[in-house]
Design a protein that fits this description.
The structure holds two protein chains of two kinds.
Chain A: H1 19-31, E1 50-60, H2 66-72, E2 78-79, E3 82-89
Antiparallel strand pairs in A: 1-3, 2-3
Chain B: H1 6-22, H2 35-53, H3 89-92, H4 95-104, H5 178-191, E1 209-210, E2 217-218, H6 220-223, H7 229-243, E3 258-261, E4 280-281, E5 289-290
Antiparallel strand pairs in B: 1-2, 4-5
Helix pairs in contact in B: 1-2
The chains are: A alpha+beta, B mainly alpha.
């Protein structure tokens, strides 16, 4: 989505682990005999993150498959060949 | 066994040199010496002989009046006789002290050579560089100062040669635009000789799919009209299923990120943005068709 058209007044950052925390973890691992270290990945983390205020986006129907149009009954929502979508969580392209 | 003195060694070397030059070895064809050369060598040998037998005194000290105790340097000047109290005045006084002392004695101070200017060059040039040619300033045309302004010739400064701007290529655009298409055309030229029936993927480019036949970058709107349209549409449906509640694919759970609404539900203070579909071919993924 085009984030350049959005004026979002809220916080657009995501808190992450700082360098001190990472060093503590690494130091603990290498200082513990027979320690094992594992990493993990959270899929679609940002897609699950709620926003304080929703954003909106027009989707041309040429990008929507017939299956999608039928499943969500979008025929009644078409305006000038587009469908309006409300974005309530984090998504690619947001500021 | 007595050791040979340095002066005697120098004299012997000069004599040997003269003898060698005057009597060349038959195997070494050396041109015979001219008379003036022989005379010069002979003078050189005599000079060596005189220096060895009658060494001249060492150069006088700069402030001869300040060193009354300076002994004569005849013989071996390096080692002073034991018990001689000698202090070299120049080594213990700086220039300011010398000037003050000379002023007390009403003497003209010695002109010291200027201090060498230290430069960044590690090695100073052995030969002074010739002075650089100083460009002559542009002289305005002669004009009487008191002349009226309207009679004064107009002075136009010679414009300085305009420096050519540095050649700077524009940076690549973040989106798939003409910049990438030019690159793709270059890639296409390298794919002409690919074996038929094989799919050749050019160098990886971010967020773009390259047509192996034409070498141009393709957007999603192009891909859904190509031979792999069904696969790209399937990838698009998977992405929409992920963004919505996941009702398109059984057994999946969507993130409920987006929700289709009517236009009347758009708040008045909000402005809807546009959609941009980014497609990419990722061979390392389980499903390389990514939207």
């Amino acid at each position: 989505m085009g984030g350049n058209k959005i004026e979002y007044a809220g916080d657009t950052s995501t808190p992450t682990a700082d360098l001190t925390t990472a060093k503590l973890v690494f130091n603990s691992v290498i200082s513990t005999p027979n320690a094992e270290f594992a990493t993990g990945n959270i899929s679609d983390l940002y897609l699950f993150t709620d926003m304080d205020e929703s954003e909106y986006m027009w989707i041309p129907i040429q990008f929507l498959n017939p299956e999608v149009m039928a499943a969500y009954k979008l025929e009644d929502l078409i305006v000038d060949g587009r469908v309006l979508a409300e974005i309530s969580k984090g998504m690619y392209g947001l500021p | 066994m007595p050791k040979l003195a340095s002066a005697n060694a120098a004299t012997a070397a000069a004599c040997n040199l003269i003898y060698a030059l005057q009597n060349p070895h038959p195997a070494v064809p050396i041109a015979p010496l001219a008379d003036d050369h022989q005379k010069g060598l002979q003078n050189l040998a005599e000079i060596f002989q005189q220096v060895a037998t009658h060494p001249e005194p060492a150069p006088s000290v700069r402030f001869a009046d300040d060193q009354p105790n300076l002994p004569t340097t005849a013989g071996s000047p390096r080692v002073l006789p034991s018990g001689t109290a000698f202090t070299y005045a120049g080594a213990t006084r700086n220039r300011g002290q010398v000037r003050q002392e000379l002023a007390r004695q009403n003497k003209q101070p010695t002109v010291f050579p200027p201090k060498p200017v230290l430069t960044n060059n590690r090695f100073a040039p052995l030969v002074d560089d010739p002075p650089a040619a100083v460009p002559k300033p542009v002289q305005p045309p002669s004009c009487p100062v008191n002349a009226p302004a309207r009679h004064r010739p107009k002075v136009t400064a010679t414009p300085a040669p305009k420096a050519s701007p540095p050649t700077r290529r524009p940076g690549p655009h973040r989106h798939n635009t003409r910049t990438k298409q030019r690159y793709c055309n270059q890639q296409r030229a390298s794919h002409v000789f690919a074996e038929p029936g094989t799919t050749v993927f050019p160098e990886p480019m971010a967020n773009s799919v390259i047509d192996p036949n034409r070498g141009v970058s393709l957007e999603y709107r192009h891909l859904i009209k190509g031979p792999d349209a069904k696969r790209w549409q399937q990838a698009n449906m998977i992405e929409i299923n992920r963004l919505t509640d996941g009702r398109l694919i059984k057994g999946s759970t969507g993130t409920k990120t987006i929700n289709f609404i009517a236009r009347s539900k758009l708040p008045k203070h909000k402005k809807a943005t546009y959609l941009r579909v980014v497609s990419n071919y990722r061979p390392s993924k389980a499903d390389p068709y990514q939207v």
